[in-house]
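User: I've been trying to design a sequence by hand for this structure and keep getting stuck. Would you show me what you'd pick, starting by listing the structure so we're on the same page?

Assistant: Good idea, let's start from the same input. This is the structure you sent:
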């Protein structure tokens, strides 16, 4: 009975990793779709989000069943409850990738992003994908130091987000109000996506230590390295 119980706990962790990998792929493909105005790719991201939703629903059902049958305590209880919260973060990340893809579909056959912003959007998309890949690694390894790095890595996304607003506020902006709204929304999608990746990592810290990451941050000063390939991180 206990072996089956722990196998079920492990399977919940496996589902979280699969969700993280799916939403990481989704944001990468959504970024390519919006930069290239690739409707077929955008539609694949939109349709693929259903798999993430299904995984979350299945995980929730299994977690609730475990709570009802086993009444876990201590670390096992943290695993179940924290997994539920992580699945919500990952599901929302999938929604945000879908929003990027839907913006592609909305503006097709036109390109939603002006050429002079392509490099910034590409960098945001690549960074978002790397952050989620690191979050998946944290779920697998339970590496607290690695988890604590994500919040620092997220500073690079905040910098890119501010860069978008600098373009929007520039008096030389010539792309009109509609495009300005699209760019504003897009920047928000990437910024929130990164926040969810950070939240996943923070929940792993709580899972392992029983303490909140923000509290530990005051006492731990890890040797933090920025996400590779991002200037200004």
């Amino acid at each position: 009975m206990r072996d089956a119980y722990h196998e079920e706990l492990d399977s919940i962790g496996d589902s979280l990793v699969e969700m993280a990998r799916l939403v990481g792929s989704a944001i990468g493909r959504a970024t390519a779709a919006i930069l290239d105005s690739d409707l077929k790719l955008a539609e694949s991201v939109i349709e693929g989000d259903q798999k993430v939703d299904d995984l979350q629903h299945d995980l929730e059902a299994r977690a609730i069943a475990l709570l009802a049958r086993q009444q876990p305590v201590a670390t096992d209880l943290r695993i179940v409850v924290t997994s539920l919260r992580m699945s919500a973060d990952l599901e929302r990340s999938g929604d945000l990738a879908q929003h990027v893809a839907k913006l592609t579909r909305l503006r097709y056959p036109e390109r939603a992003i002006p050429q002079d912003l392509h490099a910034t959007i590409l960098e945001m998309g690549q960074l978002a994908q790397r952050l989620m890949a690191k979050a998946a690694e944290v779920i697998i390894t339970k590496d607290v130091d690695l988890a604590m790095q994500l919040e620092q890595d997220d500073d690079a996304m905040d910098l890119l987000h501010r860069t978008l607003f600098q373009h929007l506020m520039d008096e030389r902006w010539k792309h009109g109000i509609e495009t300005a709204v699209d760019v504003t929304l897009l920047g928000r999608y990437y910024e929130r996506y990164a926040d969810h990746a950070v939240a996943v990592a923070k929940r792993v810290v709580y899972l392992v230590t029983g303490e909140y990451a923000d509290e530990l941050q005051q006492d731990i000063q890890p040797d933090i390295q920025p996400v590779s390939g991002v200037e200004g991180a």
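That's my pick for every position. To get oriented when you compare it with your attempt: Residues 229-233 have pLDDT under 50 and may be disordered. The chain has seven helices and no strands.
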